[in-house]
Automatic annotation (TrEMBL):
<feature type="transmembrane region" description="Helical">
    <location>
        <begin position="218"/>
        <end position="235"/>
    </location>
</feature>
<feature type="transmembrane region" description="Helical">
    <location>
        <begin position="358"/>
        <end position="378"/>
    </location>
</feature>
<feature type="transmembrane region" description="Helical">
    <location>
        <begin position="305"/>
        <end position="324"/>
    </location>
</feature>
<feature type="transmembrane region" description="Helical">
    <location>
        <begin position="62"/>
        <end position="79"/>
    </location>
</feature>
<feature type="transmembrane region" description="Helical">
    <location>
        <begin position="144"/>
        <end position="166"/>
    </location>
</feature>
<feature type="transmembrane region" description="Helical">
    <location>
        <begin position="270"/>
        <end position="293"/>
    </location>
</feature>
<dbReference type="Pfam" id="PF05940">
    <property type="entry name" value="NnrS"/>
</dbReference>
<protein>
    <submittedName>
        <fullName>Short-chain dehydrogenase</fullName>
    </submittedName>
</protein>
<feature type="transmembrane region" description="Helical">
    <location>
        <begin position="113"/>
        <end position="132"/>
    </location>
</feature>
<feature type="transmembrane region" description="Helical">
    <location>
        <begin position="20"/>
        <end position="42"/>
    </location>
</feature>
<feature type="transmembrane region" description="Helical">
    <location>
        <begin position="178"/>
        <end position="198"/>
    </location>
</feature>
<keyword id="KW-0472">Membrane</keyword>
<dbReference type="InterPro" id="IPR010266">
    <property type="entry name" value="NnrS"/>
</dbReference>
<feature type="transmembrane region" description="Helical">
    <location>
        <begin position="336"/>
        <end position="352"/>
    </location>
</feature>
<keyword id="KW-1133">Transmembrane helix</keyword>
<keyword id="KW-0812">Transmembrane</keyword>
């Protein structure tokens, strides 16, 4: 790094030196608060006055408020390593974060619906533009699939918000579910890169896992196809033929888990949490296949396996690992994080297997998991790297 760039970075508050710091911390707090509020509404508490009602808010905010925030934090940080160019930091990062925060608060503010929608789309557009600018300038063609998935996520958000503006529940549902399965594609893309690498490093192995580009491409194509079927409305009605892409996804996820599995991972919380989180992608795909074949009564169980187990589980595990690595700390999380990982997976299991009367317990598990992350990682994310690096 150039000397002037280094001095300028060191002069910034640590929270604004790289995207993972602010977005991981705020995203975890947001996950805690939003699920607590939604669970309270489900158990009889009066909902707040938001456009379209609390269900519309919940549908939009989990993928586009929480999920996209963590994706932004990860990618805005990773792109620096991919391209060799400085990531977003300082005032531009503060401005992007401010747009994200304003979009979250706008739901509860007395603003016109057009302003609410504009803020939601503004954050997504600015984030994608920043990623595209850096990747295209560096000719990072191997990362263009990430731009594809992000662009499709933006289209899904537009569909969801169009449904909100027109009072069309079907459009909102289609957009939100398609986005959820696109986030699954993103988790698969990122997980396919980092989980084997983290496993290798975490267990001290010298040999790397063999690459299987064809499997990665097939997962991408099949995952995008599933999302398109949701956006078009086809995946909202059970159809035995539509079980096929989910069966393929299940087989591909299963093969990955089998190839990555080593006995030693169960002794390392930062590893077993990643592998369990990825396993929920397999569970969700199997669940959707079972629903299309008439073996499962509710598709929401499979979708929540994806939302709570895979999205929540992989996000929590990734934040815990990435936050240590990018702040120059030893890859030894606080002991309480093993409890956080366990609680998150327990909450997912309760959400998909227990009746509606147990939703409060699933919400408590989710909230406790992210609360533990906030308590133990806020000081890490708000302080400078321990090795003096400006990141």
């Amino acid at each position: 790094m150039h000397l002037l760039d280094r001095q300028r970075a060191l002069a910034m508050a640590p929270l604004w030196r790289l995207g993972f710091r602010s977005f991981f911390l705020a995203g975890a707090l947001f996950a805690l608060l939003t699920v607590a509020l939604w669970a309270a509404v489900l158990h009889g508490a009066p909902g707040l006055a938001v456009p379209g009602g609390m269900l519309a808010w919940h549908r939009h905010e989990m993928p586009f408020g929480f999920g996209l925030a963590i994706i932004a934090g990860f990618l805005l940080t990773a792109v620096q390593n991919w391209t060799g160019r400085p990531g977003l930091n300082g005032r531009p990062l503060i401005m992007l974060f401010g747009v994200w925060l304003a979009a979250r608060l706008a739901w509860f503010a007395p603003v016109p619906l057009a302003v609410l929608i504009a803020l939601q789309l503004a954050f997504t557009s600015l984030f994608i533009t920043q990623m595209a600018r850096q990747l295209i300038a560096a000719r990072q063609r191997n990362n263009y699939p990430i731009l594809l998935v992000l662009s499709l996520l933006a289209l899904c958000q537009s569909l969801t918000l169009a449904g909100l503006a027109m009072g069309d529940d079907g459009w909102q549902r289609r957009g939100a579910l398609a986005a959820l399965w696109l986030i699954a594609v993103m988790l698969s893309l990122i997980g396919g890169r980092v989980i084997p690498f983290f496993t290798q490093r975490g267990l001290g192995r010298t040999e790397a896992f063999a690459a299987h580009p064809w499997l990665d491409r097939l997962l991408l194509v099949c995952g995008v196809l599933v999302a398109v079927l949701f956006a078009s409305g086809h995946n909202l009605q059970a159809n035995p033929w539509l079980a096929t892409p989910f069966i393929v996804l299940s087989a591909l996820h299963g093969q990955r888990l089998w190839r990555w599995h080593l006995r030693g991972i169960w002794r390392v919380p930062l590893l077993w949490s990643l592998h369990l989180g990825y396993a929920w992608l397999l569970v969700a795909s199997l669940g959707m296949a079972a629903w299309h074949l008439g073996w499962l009564t509710q598709p929401s169980l499979a979708n929540h396996a994806l939302a709570v187990g895979a999205m929540g589980g992989l996000i929590l595990a990734m934040m815990a690992r990435v936050s240590l690595g990018h702040t120059g700390r030893a890859l030894q999380p606080p002991k309480a994080m093993a409890w956080a990982f366990g609680l998150l997976n327990l909450g997912a299991l309760i959400r998909v297997s227990a009746g509606s009367s147990w939703l409060w317990l699933a919400a408590i598990c989710w909230g406790a998991a992210f609360a533990l992350f906030v308590v133990y990682y806020a000081p890490i994310l708000c302080r400078a790297r321990v090795d003096g690096h400006p990141g």
